Amino acid sequence: MSELNSKADQLKRQADLMGLTREAVFTDEQAKEVLQGKITDGYLVKVKIDLDSLNGMVLILVSSIRKHIMELYAVVGTSPTFRRIRTFADHVQISTDLGDIGKSGGYDPAISENIGRAVHRAFTKEKLEELLPLWQKKDPSHISELLENPILMATKGRNIKLQAEVDKLSTAKFRYENPMKGVILPIPKPEDEAAAAQEVSVPGISTEPAKGELSSLERQIAQYRTSFPKELNMKTVISPINGVEFDNLMEGMEILFRVPTETPEGLTNAQILGLIDEEGKISKDPVVGKFLGIAGNKSEYHIFAEGPNRYLLHSIEEHPVKVAIPKPTAMTGGTNKGPAGQNTKKKVGNAQAQDSKSSGTNLFMLMGAFVTIVLFGVLIFVMVIL
Q1: What residues contact residue 197 under an 8 Å CB cut-off, 6+ apart?
Q2: CA–CA separation, 49 vs 217, rounded Å?
Q3: What UniProt keywords apply to this chain's record, in alphabetical order (predicted)?
């Protein structure tokens, strides 16, 4: 009976996926090829938003065959969970985090809907036709410039920072397995889309990159460099057991770095950080930095932190790692092995020696007095007899 139920569930799943796939393609043949993995029918655009005092994510599911938005989710608010969501993370993890935010009520539905409607209006069919060739090359660099003005206008915000990534995937599998189902509803396309599109100022997009234009990763890195006078290249201190994973790093958290002193640049940086003493010895102590953020794509991750004297500490990893953090300060006690402890031991030892010496002197004096008394008594006894 259970085997029959399992087969029935599989058939139902295949039928559901087929129905969802048909909405993203033109023919049944295309739908079969998508389900067989021969072609991919969509992209998921992941946009992280920092807007004044708010944070959030926008997920845009786009059919690459029909060239239109299938579903759009906007979740913006004050939940601290937003700060640990990374655009380069797996979309299932991002959707799970957004679902958890929805359950806890850590977002603003009204502002989220305004942003979602603005994004709908910005991604017209004409704009999608210009963007899809770029996404085929895994280039999301134009998304931020496309969305900045519409989002600011929709929210009357002042300061905005956007980070974007694009994943190629099956639209049906995303919709079927979406962890946000039943918790966060997709933002519907505005009925006045055509009229509103004329009101929203959207920069023109060229499929040819401008000369000297920064990539998406370079743009992310540049945002961290602007506020610091000097950048120092470092190595991340990795702690596989006690370290903190990328997703759990919070802004302001203290993390550890080392200076790569095997290079001339590293030696210079060690000198700058005061790690070389007068005798030329290099300290092996790690450098503590306050975590700022991570800029990355799927092949490299740039970790940034504020170091001593407001130096920008920058390390690069090829994959997510567990980053070491400072150990809690140990309580000082009777096992102190530092100079102060040695001085204490020395003082105790001297006191014991002095006490021992004093006791020996007193014993000697008592013995002398006893002998004197005995001799004096013997002398008196002899004189009486005589």
Answers
A1: 121, 124
A2: 16
A3: Membrane, Transmembrane, Transmembrane helix
Sort strands 231-233 and 312-317 into parallel, antiparallel or unpaired.
Answer: parallel
Tell me the C-alpha distance between 74 and 122, whole Å. Answer: 14
Q: What tokens does 81 get?
A: 């969970």
Residue 169: closest CA among 31, 43, 22: 43
Alpha-helix residue ranges (DSSP H) falling in the chain? 2-22, 28-35, 91-104, 109-122, 125-136, 141-155, 171-177, 193-199, 216-225, 264-272, 339-385
* 259 Cβ contact partners less than 8 Å away, ≥ 6 residues apart: 232, 234, 235, 266, 269, 270, 273, 275, 287
Q: What residues are paired with 58 via a beta bridge?
A: 47, 74
Dump pLDDT digits (tens) for 251-308.
Answer: 999 999 999 888 778 888 888 898 988 888 899 899 999 999 998 877 789 999 999 9
Report d(CA 326, CA 32) in Å as an integer: 54
Backbone angles phi, psi at 169, to 5 degrees: -160, 180
Q: How far is CA 32 from each of CA 27, 61, 336, 354, rounded to the nearest angstrom?
A: 9, 20, 72, 96
**CA distance to 29, 288, 319, per residue, from 304 (Å):** 48, 12, 15
Three-state DSSP class for 177? helix
Residues 199, 177: Cα–Cα separation, whole Å: 36
Predicted TM-score (pTM) above 0.90:
no
Task: Please count the other Cβ atoms lying within 10 Å of the Cβ belonging to residue 26.
Answer: 11
pLDDT digits (tens, 9 = 90+) for 185-214: 999 988 755 444 444 444 444 444 444 556
Q: Cα separation of 140 and 165, whole Å?
A: 6
Q: Indicate the SS3 state at residue 203.
A: coil
What distance in Å separates the CA atoms of residue 57 and residue 187, rounded to the nearest whole number? 13
Residue 311 · residue 231 · CB < 8 Å: yes
